[in-house]
């Protein structure tokens, strides 16, 4: 099988972007868009310098440097796999605890964008308020020692300080992470952290830097032996290949402090309505992932396409999407929400992806407040008690108990796993303990109807099992006006 190679001269590329967080998603998404642009003979001064702020990033650096920073990206289309070598990244900055090499690179005038995929938890947002939390230990430490930052945002601030002092224009901070208003979250983290040590710098950043919001979408599972074997089938000896679905989407605000590549020529949508795209994707796709992942994992199902083959879970997802999510998603320019939902269901069912329920279950304490609870709130505000979404939250609680329906131990799968497990075990007898986690549910803990509905759902899951709980919800369908 053939492998597409970069059709441009990589030796003529020059850097314009530093990207922090060289995980699979970035290499299957932003790097691919840039690779496509370079292949058109354009934007060759926008190549990527890879970067990381965690010790584990050094392992990725070693692997990519050994293959000239080329990434293998394999699209897993049910009609046939396609492999390409993506050449948009030309170097990987040394990973150092002081972040000195990273700060030096971001201080260079030719770097005009600093982009990042640092996960939802990397923005230090208080789940209860939705705002940047300056009291988080990592942030407090960077605020006290701004010359030795350990976080990505601490390093960004140090580089922006260098640029201000050298009278160099600031770069754009471009979040490519999967959270609502990701640009606003990046702005809040950057300016909020800067204020802890240098209020004048914070004001300069606020006045001069830009933080565009974006909606990013492509399913790119974690790399394991299966993915390495697929790469071997293409004749590639790559320890870190990326597999992904054929679909990709990127909607982006056109707010760049120092210019940008012409990404609209390779399929990126520049729009003033990113929030609508974000809401659509986060509620329908990411919310949908959470809805199917926990019942699938509790039942001992490993891969997402196998979860979707479970008729009870698939029906559960379809009904919640139709009745409790789509009615509260605002109109999106150029998108039919019902068609988008059908596309999502098809993407979840792609048997080639082999995404795992375990991956989708990860970090529920950060993801539930972003992907599920906002839809619960919207339903309640409209006078509807969303039984399916409440049940989905109860299934998260049941999952965090730490044992599936076959008696198998569920491995720790959340930064707060120990506390969640302790609370889930108390909630088996006293469900209000779970809803009482105000850092997750906020004032929903004070809503007696929500507490009662959650208790009923959790009791049903424990007394009759996942299938019975899902089947009861699917069968008990109220009459509701169709989505328009």
General description of the model:
- The chain has 484 residues and is α/β, with parallel strands linked by helices.
- 47% of the residues lie in helices and 12% in strands.
- The chain is built from 22 helices and 14 strands.
- It has a 5-stranded parallel beta sheet with strand order 6-3-2-7-10, with helices on both faces.
- Strand 4 and strand 5 form a beta hairpin.
- Helix 10 packs parallel to helix 13.
- The longest helix is centred in the middle third of the chain and has 25 residues.
- The C terminus is likely disordered.
In which order are the strands of the major sheet placed?
6-3-2-7-10
Number of separate strands: 14
Specify the structural class: alpha/beta
> Using only CA atoms, what is the Rg?
23 Å
Nearest-integer average pLDDT: 95
- Cα distance spanning the termini: 46 Å
Tally of separate helices: 22
What is the overall silhouette? globular
- For the report, how would you describe the main beta sheet? 5 strands, parallel
How much of the residues is beta strand, in percent? Answer: 5-15%
Low-confidence stretches: 479-484
Portion of residues within helices = 40-55%
